Every structure is written in structure tokens, then in C-alpha cells.
Task: structure prediction
Amino acid sequence: MIAAIGVLLIGMLALPAMRDALERVMVLHMLVQIPLLAVGGGLMAAGLRSSWKARVGAWNRGGVSGILLALIASSWWMVPRALDLALSSPAMELAKFVTLPLLVGAPVALSWSRVGAIGRGFVIANVLPMWAVVGWLYIAAPMRVCNFYLVDQQVAAGNGLLGASIALGALAGLLAFRSA
Amino acid sequence: MRTAAASLFISAAGGALLWHGTSGFRALTTEQARRLAVQQQPVMLPLTALEDQDGQPFTLASYHGRPVAVDFVFTQCRSLCPLLSAGFQRLDRAERAREGGERLQLVSISFDPRDTPARLRDYSSRYRADGRAWRFARVRDTTDLAPLLEAFGIVVIADGRGDFQHNAAVHVVNREGRLARVLDPDASPDAVANAGRSVRPPGMLRAVARRR
Result:
């Protein structure tokens, strides 16, 4: 059931009209389409049969390899050139629809529960500041970093990344206090 | 053990892919990637029919044997083009003052279909271009524009207010008529002129290196 929702979500995002609407605006591309593709992959993985989860888990003690995979794969989609390539090259667009669910969303879903408290803190303390730095770069860059997006869109995407980083940081802090 | 092996494989494969995708972490933007690619392998340019501010037809191939600096502008532009044109004006002055050697030729190509030769002439007089060593041009046939921009690696997008945004740079075309270097819009006249005069086809350099 939950896996079907993930497939449905990715299918909806792949509709030409949906792709066009979300990729036309940089902030929607970076902060709506890309995260939702990962969420779709996460839902798909969450619906895996437990025998499969156990088989994958043997390669993923403490969630280390899964989180590592997600960190590396997601960092590519923070590179401005990757966003341009997704718009200009159908192969890269396809790669986006495959790698974000399978190499980012799914590994996080299969790994996060296995990561210890210190490991979680470490991951959060690395990822969120990285988003903030990328966001700040987009705001402060003296030139356009993406050929296919206007400067004001770049600034909006930068503000969005910075905002998301701060909001998720606050949320993580709140959850940490509640569980403590 | 298996987790360690998986992690090692992920780091190696992922690192290699990231390295490849960013040309060794030197090209995080499309513009940086374009500059690196051009420098490594000069780009053959299409023989696009152009016309200048006086309506005179010409092509970039007609400069054969002489280095040319090319930029892309439109006359209504208020953001990057004035910077590019001011840079070309400095370059033009420096090249006029220079004695001996061959003069770097300058061509400013408009990608705005609204720019007629008359408008280009107006614009060129604003920057005191002589119309020969520094020409302002447009494509004669608008269907040629997209392939020309593509060959140079220029992406032009409408900003929805009747204007355009575009990647701005100084393009140096070498004596063989290939795009050989892409420099910042505010590159010094010396840097552009030197790039224009020093670029040799990489094939020749490689052949020389092999012989040694």
C-alpha cells in the first residue's frame, strides 16, 4: 500500500505538465520536485517486504552505507550544472527520476532507523549547514549559476534553501529536546 | 564487513562520478564547464551568414587567419551587455593604440530579432566603434540563430518583461576559425588580446610534444 503511494507520487511528478510546471521555476525544481522524488523513493522502500529489508540490512549495519549513498547522490543534485543538465539533456532528466528515489530516498528510509543518536546528529549537523551555505551562495553569487534560470529565481531558490535549512534545524532541535 | 565493503564501493564509485560530472570539481556551473571544454578542445563554428550595422553581409570565416573576439549582446540590454560593450571599447582602444602586429578583430552579435542594422548602428556609435575592426552584427536568417548560439554555448532566456538574460563572456576565435577561449566579461584588454594571438590548434601542440 505505502509503496504504491510512492510509485504514484513519482508517476505524477513524471507527467509532462507537472514536470513543466515544477521545472519552470528554480525554487520549485530544487525544493519541491527533487525532495518529492526522494520522498517517493522512501515510500517505495518503506513498503518493501521485511525479508528484503533484512537482506539489504546485512550490507547496511548502522545505516552507514545507506546514508553515505544518499549523501553522495544528493550532493550531485545540489550542483547548479546538474539542474541545467536535467533541463537540457533527456538522459540526465531520466537519471534524476531514477537516482533521487532509488539512491537518495530509498536508502534514507532503509537506514535512518538503524542510525544511532550520535550518527543522526552528525548527519543533520552536516547536511543542514551545507544547504544553508549553498543557499547563501545562490543569494550572494555575483552571476547566474544556472543558464536556464533568471537571477531573481536563483535568489528565491537561495532563500528557500536557507529557510528550509533553518526550519529543519529548528525541528530537529525540538525533536531532540522532546526525546531527551 | 559487508557494510564496510558496500561503503567503500559507494564512496569510490560516487566520488568518481561526482569527479567526472564536475570535471574534477572545476565545473560546478554550465558556464565553467563550457569554458573548460572550449579550452581543451576548440569548437568548430557554423558558417552563419551575418550582416553588420551597415547591412553588409559577412561570416566569421571571412576573418580566416586573423584572431577575432566575439561577444553576444542586444541593444536594449541594461544588465550585462553594457559591461561587455564597455570591455570591448577598452579592448578596441588598446588595439588601436598598439603598434605593429596584427589587430584583434571585434564582432558583437545581437541575438534580439528586434535589432535592425539601423539600431545596431546607433548602438555602435554609442561605443565609438568604427564598424570595420569592431562590427555589430545580426544573423541574416533568424533560423540560423539557434545553431550559432548553441555552437558558442550561449543560452538566452526571455525574462518575461520583454528582455533577455544570457550568459555573458568574451569569446576568442582563433586563426583556424575555431572558438578557442572563453573569458570573463571584465577580462583585461591584454588578457583577451594575448588569448587571441597565442591560441594555436591543440593538434599542433600535441604533435610537437610527441616528436620530442
Q: What stands out?
A: Chain B has two domains: 2-27, 41-211. Strands of chain B lie at 43-44, 50-52, 57-58, 68-73, 105-110, 134-139, 156-158, 164-166, 170-173, 178-183. Confidence is low (pLDDT under 50) at residues 202-212 of chain B.
